[in-house]
């Protein structure tokens, strides 16, 4: 699903965010990306959904060479990648339904398809009854569930989740993890950056640890490994 071969990322100010990164993530894996703040985790994630491109090396996602991707192909590739952010990034003036359905409108799905699938994913995340609410009327946990619904509405092959529980209380965080586990069980690859030691150590998955832009640990059922 995701292959990185000798990936380097240097920003215009000279900051080296990633250096000589080699990773293969298979279809239907669930992977935690861990490490100290500033280690390069967010850059790692941004490369996957092509917000950034590598300075050097080869990155393929779902068979596409991200570094050499033509501009017209970017929207097509992003259809197969769902992204969940720590700060939700919902459109404040749109309802929960509209925030989710917008992702399908972008790919020009039919109105019938949009209605059926949007209500389906709202039901999956347990918020069908909040379809008409705007983000300000929802709790943080509910907003994150809507963000997850938006990320999965187009049936992506991979979900990239950057600190999806970072702004949530412990009980709500576990609810979000249960939802992500269910999505993973249905066949979606999930790559999740997190500082949540308890979640990583309880729901044991593959752990990739990054420090100073370098992968220092890659374990199939790893632990968080840092004091917080």
UniProtKB/TrEMBL annotation:
Localization, UniProt? Cell membrane
Q: Please list the residue ranges annotated as the ABC transporter domain.
A: 2-228
Query: Which InterPro entries would you find in this protein's record?
Result: AAA+_ATPase (IPR003593), ABC_transporter-like_ATP-bd (IPR003439), ABC_transporter-like_CS (IPR017871), ABC_transpr_LolD-like (IPR015854), Cell_div_FtsE (IPR005286), P-loop_NTPase (IPR027417)
One GO molecular function term of this record is:
ATP hydrolysis activity
- The domain of life is Bacteria
Per UniProt, the keywords (alphabetical) are: ATP-binding, Cell cycle, Cell division, Cell membrane, Membrane, Nucleotide-binding, Transport
Task: Extract one GO BP annotation from the record.
Answer: cell division
Family matches, as PROSITE patterns: ABC_TRANSPORTER_1, ABC_TRANSPORTER_2
Question: What membrane topology is given?
Answer: Peripheral membrane protein
Q: Pfam families attached here?
A: ABC_tran (PF00005)
Can you cite an annotated GO cellular component? plasma membrane
Major place of residence = membrane
Q: What does this protein do?
A: Part of the ABC transporter FtsEX involved in cellular division.
Q: NCBIfam families recorded for this chain?
A: FtsE
Q: What family is this?
A: Belongs to the ABC transporter superfamily.
Q: How does it assemble?
A: Homodimer. Forms a membrane-associated complex with FtsX.
Name of the featured protein? Cell division ATP-binding protein FtsE
Lineage, broadest ranks: Bacteria, Bacillati, Bacillota, Bacilli, Bacillales
